[in-house]
Write a structure and sequence with these properties.
CATH topology of the largest domain: Rossmann fold
Strand content: 15-25%
Radius of gyration: 26 Å
Strand order of the largest sheet: 4-3-9-10
CATH superfamily of the largest domain: HUPs
Distance between the termini: 42 Å
Largest sheet: 4 strands, parallel
Number of strands: 15
Number of domains: 3
Oligomer: single chain
CATH class of the largest domain: Alpha Beta
Bound molecules: zinc ion
CATH architecture of the largest domain: 3-Layer(aba) Sandwich
Number of helices: 16
Helix content: 40-55%
Length: 466
């Protein structure tokens, strides 16, 4: 078992991570709010969390992976009322579509997927503990707030001191009910019923209402992973206030360290722009498929940048990733088929090393290609021993599994060109040999209009269907 070296937002340094109980690496990922289709920005985070799990499992660790679905909040309540459905019905529909998208993207199912609606009693109990400890109070309108002045370590994750936090909160003080709070930066644990909540209310010791958003993740993560666990994760936008508030709730209630390690995935931009509803660039898996790509091309492109850097998602990058997957598919075609894969990475061990070094996916993908090319060259030169090939084929298979990348099969990726296309390719080859570049370019355009890409190689050319 090798530990993974992973950047920890809490300590601002890369640290080794292995199971604190010596058995299973227990981790929690904040899941989506299920009121619409998840978009590529959400999937960057979910795909990276999935790679994290695959990599630690490849390194010999067992995992316990919990990802929640947020189904009680302003957006889901508003959406269900607008759709004339119950909150359960409305959010179950979007949860099903989330599962369809996750499966298409080869994202492993979490071991537990709790929802806020199903865990209201646990949330009420946790709020009760915070009330007993003087860390929460009831306002005049009946809502319960967390008293952040009473939690000494507030701000330790986002590295803000309390006056910065207060300043941020003052800036956002714009809704009437906020004036009930002792302090502008205090946040709601329990929201008293309002008319716009419709039928969505639960009984509590503090009257009818519903839990705030932050409390669900504290209650559900501790229920399934224990009061202290190994790692907690989400997009960088969740560091403050969501994760900061989770720490205040959980550590305030238990007096113990909540999550030891915090793993955050940077933002995604689309064609250089911020993603937003108004720009119409909140692309979904269906959008990507409608452009003629496979979901796995999207997955590959989300791994092409380091998770701590913002990633620019473009159609050009999708194209490049599709070609890269095809090259891997062509390499797979050189390997023996029908073998039972053995454990281990053999010549692909540097790929796992790069992944264990702060999930350096761009470096690891580069290595996957360069090592494949070296092996292919050896094979073509007849330098490989047949008995080495089992270990090499297994290593390649295991490396692909660690990324969760599937490569096109010989007949899918390497579809044979019809005779007319082959003729055009031959003509272009002849034009190139005669150094008639204008004619060669014209023929290449003609091929591309017919849906084929001709790639020149040292010993000829290759035709690939676009
Ligand atoms: Zn959460």
């Amino acid at each position: 078992m090798h530990p993974i070296n992973l950047y920890n937002t809490l300590t601002r340094s890369a640290e080794n991570l292995s199971p604190m109980d010596g058995q299973r690496l227990r981790f929690y990922c904040c899941g989506p709010t299920v009121y619409g289709r998840a978009h590529v920005g959400n999937f960057r985070t979910f795909v990276m969390q999935d790679v994290f799990r695959r990599v630690v499992e490849a390194a010999g660790m067992e995992t316990l992976h919990v990802r929640n679905v947020t189904n009680v909040d302003d957006k889901t309540i508003r959406g269900s009322i607008a759709a004339g459905q119950s909150l359960e019905e409305f959010t179950e529909y979007w949860t099903r579509l989330l599962h369809v998208d996750c499966e298409a993207l080869s994202i492993l199912e979490p071991h537990e997927e709790p929802s806020a609606i199903a865990h209201v009693p646990e949330q009420i109990e946790l709020i009760g503990q915070l009330m007993e400890k003087g860390l929460a109070y009831q306002s005049d309108n009946g809502s319960i707030y967390y008293r952040i002045a009473a939690f000494e370590e507030y701000g330790k994750l986002c590295h803000l001191n309390k006056s910065d936090v207060r300043h941020n909160a003052d800036q956002r003080l714009n809704t009437a009910d906020e004036y009930d709070k002792e302090n502008a930066s205090d946040f709601a644990l329990w929201k008293t019923w309002r008319e716009e909540d419709g039928d969505n209310a639960w009984d509590s010791p503090w009257g009818r209402g519903r839990p705030g958003w932050h409390i669900e993740c504290s209650a559900m993560s501790m229920k399934y992973l224990g009061e202290s666990f190994d790692m907690h994760s989400g997009g960088v936008d969740l560091i403050f206030p969501h994760h900061e508030n989770e720490i205040a709730q959980s550590e305030g209630a238990t007096g113990k360290t909540f999550a030891r390690h915090w793993f955050h995935v940077a933002h995604l931009k689309v064609e250089g722009e911020k993603m937003s509803k108004s720009l119409g660039n909140l692309y979904t898996v269906d959008d990507i498929v409608s452009w003629g790509f496979e979901p796995n091309d999207l997955r590959y492109s989300l791994l092409a940048g380091h998770y701590r850097q913002p990633l620019n998602f473009t159609k050009d990058s999708l194209n490049a990733c599709r070609s890269a997957r095809r090259r891997l598919g062509q390499f797979a075609d050189l390997l023996p088929v029908g073998l039972e894969p053995t454990p281990g990475f053999s010549v692909f061990a540097p790929v796992l090393d790069a992944l264990l070094d702060d999930l350096n996916t761009p470096k690891a993908l580069g290595l996957l290609h360069s090592i494949s090319q070296d092996v292919a060259a050896d094979l073509k030169a007849g330098k490989s021993e047949p008995d080495e090939m089992v270990a090499i084929a297994s290593g390649f298979h295991n490396a692909l599994l660690a990324f969760g990348i599937e490569v096109p099969q010989a007949d899918a990726g390497g579809e044979e060109a019809p005779d007319g296309i082959k003729d055009l390719a031959e003509q272009r080859s002849a034009a190139r040999a005669a150094k008639d570049w204008t004619e060669a370019d014209r023929l290449r355009d003609e091929l591309s209009k017919a849906g084929w890409e001709m790639r020149d190689q040292a010993d000829g050319y290759e035709l690939t269907k676009l």
